[in-house]
Known about the structure:
Layout: E1 5-11, H1 17-28, E2 31-34, H2 35-42, H3 48-58, H4 65-77, E3 84-88, H5 94-106, E4 113-117, H6 121-129, E5 131-134, E6 140-142, E7 163-164, H7 171-194, E8 198-201, H8 208-221
Parallel strand pairs: 1-3, 1-4, 2-3, 4-8
Antiparallel strand pairs: 5-6, 5-7
Helix pairs in contact: 4-5
The structure holds adenosine monophosphate (AMP).
Adenosine monophosphate binds at residues 35-36, 39, 56-57, 60-63, 68, 89-90, 92, 96.
Amino acid sequence: MKKEKRIVLMGAPASGKGTWSKVITEKYALEHLSTGDLLRKVREEDTELGRKVRDYMDRGALVPDDIVIGMVDDLLTRGEAADGFVFDGFPRTLAQAEALDIILERHGKSLDLVIDLDVDEKILIDRIVYRRVCSDCGQPYNLKTAAMRPKVEGICDYCNGRLIQRSDDTEETFMKRLKEYHDQADPLLDYYQKQGKRVSFSISELTDETRREMFELIEEKLS
Length: 223
Ligand code: AMP
């Protein structure tokens, strides 16, 4: 199996993208590259670029392709993630996907795999609608999942804080976010399907068994 792995992880909100990124990067010693995290750092800078990024992010809009592509190009050209990466939140547009191919090609490399976390919509909705968070320490709970319920109803197990439902954790708001995700992601998934790089992983829960299945999938594709 190839040691270096260049992977893009795609998935709707609440599909477990953050969790799986961590699991995969730890297993194969890859770099976790989240453009959302990188841009959150840039937006804090008191520079023209920082202000521009802040303006887009505050409106919930995508940051323009040239900024994001430039940032990724710098990163990969500096040799960061030379031993492989898992991209999370990038690419978000076809222009970004094409640019990533070109940047990698310039370095004599290519993307290996695009994992599509294709979780059933009903499961995603339950994750959001039954989600509660502690108003003091932020600890997440889920009333639908036995292992994630608080010991005492409405009270945080760790700090005794009050559990609340976030105002945007409703089915209506979530369905809007889901549609936005599909509008962005579906053309990209088609692009990678045509390149033969897309694989779907429709399991949502993280268990020893599903972790093994994910590793088997990656190793089979990259053997
Ligand atoms: P995320 O943490 O991935 O949800 O990203 C948070 C915000 O950062 C998004 O709402 C966008 O404003 C911006 N962002 C992150 N990644 C990208 C990207 N690949 N292209 C454009 N904007 C992005």
